[in-house]
Amino acid sequence: MSYFLRKKWMVNLSGAGKILWALNMKKDSYPYLICMTVLGLIFIFLFFWWRADIYRVTFLNQSISHYYILFSMGIAFLLSLFWVKKGIVKQSGWKSLSAYLKVYAGMCIFAGFFLIIPLTTLTYFLPGETSSYVAPYRYTSGSSKSCSGAEVDDPDLHENIRICYPYGNYEYDNIIYVEKKINTLGAVVTYAQTARDDTE
C-alpha cells in the first residue's frame, strides 16, 4: 500500500514539475516577450497621451486637492510601514528614523503619482457646466519639465493656474479668454486664446 502511495505522490510531483516548467518556458517564449513589449509600449503611449491631453488642461479644486494630498500621505504611511516590516529599515536610533522618513517620502511620491492619474482622468471625462471668463495673465516660459503658456488667476478655482500653449501671441499679449468645463472635482480648460488690450 505504501509503495502505491509513494508512487502516486511521485507522479503528482512530476506533474506539478511539468506545469512549473511549462509556465517558465511560457515566460521565456517569444509570444510572451512580444506581448509584454506591446503592453509596455501601450502603457508608455497612454502615459504621454494623458500627460499632454489630460493633465495639462485639468485642474482640481481646492477641497479635492486637499483630500488627494491627505489620501496620498495615508497610503504612503501604510506602504512605508509595510516596507519597514519587510526589513528595509534596519538601523537603530536616529538612523532608523532618518531611514524611515526617506522611505515615507519616497512612498508619498509614489502614491501621489499613481493617484493623480485616475483622479485627473475622472475629472476630465466627468460632465459639467461650461463657463468662460476674460482676465489678465502673465507669460511664463517653459522648461524640460513644464510647458510655456499663460498664468492666470482662475475665479472658480480661486488659484493661479498655467494654461499651456493658448491660441494667440501669448508671449506678448496681456489678456486671455478662457472656456472651461466645471464639475464637482475641478475644471477642464477646453479653449483659451490671448489678445492685446492696449487700454491697459
UniProtKB/TrEMBL annotation:
Positions of transmembrane segments: 30-52, 64-84, 104-126
Q: What is this protein called?
A: Transmembrane protein
Q: Does the keyword Membrane apply?
A: yes
Sorted keywords for this record are: Membrane, Transmembrane, Transmembrane helix
**Is Membrane among this UniProt entry's keywords?**
yes
- The species this protein belongs to is Escherichia coli O157
